[in-house]
Amino acid sequence: MDKSKCFFAVDLGATSGRTVVGTISDGKVEIEEVTRFANNLIETGGHFYWDIYALYFEIIRGLKVVAKQGVEITSIGIDTWGVDFVCIGDDGALLRNPLAYRDPHTFGAMEEYFSNVVSKEEIYQITGIQFMNFNSLFQLYAMKRDGNSALKNAAQILFVPDALSWMLTGKAICEYTIASTSQMLDPRTKDLDNKLLESVGLSRDKFGKMVSPGYQIGTLTEEVQKMTGLGAIPVIAVAGHDTGSAVAAVPASNEKFAYLSSGTWSLMGIEAKDAIINDLSYDRNFTNEGGIEGTTRFLKNICGMWLLERCRKEWGDSAPSDYGTLLGEAMKVTAFQSLINPDDDMFANPSNMQEAIKQYCSETGQHVPEGYAEICRCIFDSLALRYRQVFGYLQEMASFPIETLHIIGGGSLNDYLNQFTANSTGVTVLAGPQECTALGNIMIQAKAAGLVDGIFDMRKLIANSVALKRFEPQDKALWDAAYEKYLKVIK
What angle do CA 39, 41, 45 make, to 5 degrees? Predict the structure, then answer.
C-alpha cells in the first residue's frame, strides 16, 4: 500500500452537508472535515425545492480549501439522500431547481397511480422497493399529471449525486445504488424497468448509462479546474445513496451480520447476494436497494430517534438539555410500564409528540407516561422491542444465520439503547463507526484507486481504524416477557 493517499468525499443529507478528506496510510483510514453547511429547502409558488446551485457552490468551496492547503487528492466522490432528481434541457442547462421529496405534490399520487396505472403488487414484483409516496416513480407521475414544464422539456434526468457529478465533469451517468431508490429499477436485470418508465411517459435514454460504485465518471472540467486551482482529478461514482455508502462501511468480518443504521430514522437490514421479493417481504413492506459489488441491501425503515428529537423540542427548558443527564433520569424509571409501536401512523408527524405517545398508551390500556423521564424510557424500551420484531423478520427471510448486529451512525454512541438492543434481539451488538457514510464513500474511492481489493478488505481496514464497542445480551427472561407484552399492545 502507498504511504498515504487522500480522497475527497461530499456527503449531503436532507438538512446539512459536508466535505471530508479521508487519508489512507499504514493500513488505516482517518477522516477530517473540511467544510460543513446547511442544505436549505426553498419554498416558493406552493412547492419545495432543493438549491442544487448552492450545493454545487459548497462542493467548489470545499475543493478550493483543500487546494489552498496543498492537499493532493486522488479522487472525488459524492453521496446524497435518495429519490430526488434534476431535469436537464437539450442545451445542457438545468431546468430549474429540483423538487424536494417533502413537496406536497405527491400526497395521494401513489394511491392514484395504483388505481389508474400499475397495481401495487405488480410494482413490488418488479422492484422489491417499499412504498413511500415520495419515491421517484410517484414524483414523476405527479409532475406529468400536473404538466410540469421542467419534465416536459427534459432531455436528461439525473439523480442528485449524478447531477452534481455531471456539473463537475460534464459526464452523465446513472449510479446503481441511487437509481435503486427510485422504485423504477428491476434488481434482477440491474436496470430501470421500461414498463414503469413508459407509465410516466419516459424512455430509458433519458437517463445516463447504468454504472456500479467504483466507476470513474470523468475528470474535473477545465472550468472547475480553473475555479478551484486543482488539476484533472477523477470523479468516482461511489454508492451515491448515502445508506449504500454507510452500509459499505459496516466493519463486519463475514457476511453473517445484520446492520442498524441509527439516527433520526433507523434502517435495519442485511446484505444479500440477490433481491428478496416474495409475499412475505411484500406483506412486511421490506425494501431491496442496491449495494456495492452487486449486493442487495434488504432492509426496513423504522422510525428512530425522531420520536425523542421531537419530544426534546417540546420539553424545551422543562427537561435536562444535557443528553447524558436526560438518559440517566430515564433509566431510573420502571422498565416496560408503557410501550408503543414506533412505526404507528400517529407518530409520523403529530402536532404534539408527547400527547401522541400518551394517547397511544391510554388507548391500549397501559400506564400513561408522565414527565420527560417516563416518556424517554417508553421510547427506548419500545424502539429496542421494535428492533427485535424486525430482526426476527430478517432471521426468517435471510439465507444465512445472523450472528452479529452492527449499529452504525450517530445512534452507535447511545450505550443505553445499544445494550437494550442486544438484550432484546439476543445477539451480540457491535457499535461503530459513527462516521460510516463518509468512510464508505472514501473506501469505494480507495477501491477504485486499487488500494483495497474488495468489500471485506475495505471493512477490515475500517475495523483497524475505529474502536468498536461490544454489547452482549443480558436479562433474557425479562426481555422475553416484555416482548410478549409489546406484541399484545401493538395488536
Answer: 155
**Residue 455, all three cell numbers:** 468489500
Give how far Cα 466 sits from Cα of 135, 246, 344, 463, Å: 34, 14, 36, 6
Distance separating alpha carbons of residues 391 and 399, to the nearest angstrom:
14
Residue 1 is predicted with a pLDDT of: 39
Cα distance from N-terminal residue to C-terminal residue, the chain: 55
pTM above 0.85, yes or no: yes
Please name the residue ranges forming H helices in 47-93.
Answer: 52-69
- The SS3 call for residue 379 is helix
Neighbours of 400 (CB within 10 A): 13
Report the distance separating Cα 268 and Cα 303, nearest Å.
11
Tell me the residue ranges of DSSP E strands in 39-124.
41-44, 47-50, 73-79, 85-88
For 86, the 3-state DSSP assignment is: strand
Burial class (CB in 10 A: 0-12, 13-18, 19+), 22: buried
Which of the residues are catalytic?
242
CB atoms within 10 A of CB 257: 21
pLDDT in tens, 143-164: 999 999 999 999 999 999 999 9
Give pLDDT, residue 263: 87
Q: Angle CA(190)–CA(392)–CA(271) in degrees, nearest 5?
A: 25
Distance from C-alpha of 184 to C-alpha of 241, rounded to nearest angstrom: 15
Between CA 355 and CA 347 the distance in angstroms is 10
And the C-alpha cell for 135? 419515491
Residue of 438, 466, 461 whose CA lies nearest to 7 = 438
Amino acid at residue number 83: V
d(CA 343, CA 285): 12
Low-confidence ranges of the chain (pLDDT < 50): 1-2
Tell me the C-alpha distance between 293 and 287, whole Å. 18
Q: Which residues of 186-197 are buried (b: 16+ CB within 10 A; e: fewer)?
A: bbeeebbbeebb
Q: How far is CA 333 from CA 68, 371, 396, in A?
A: 53, 11, 34
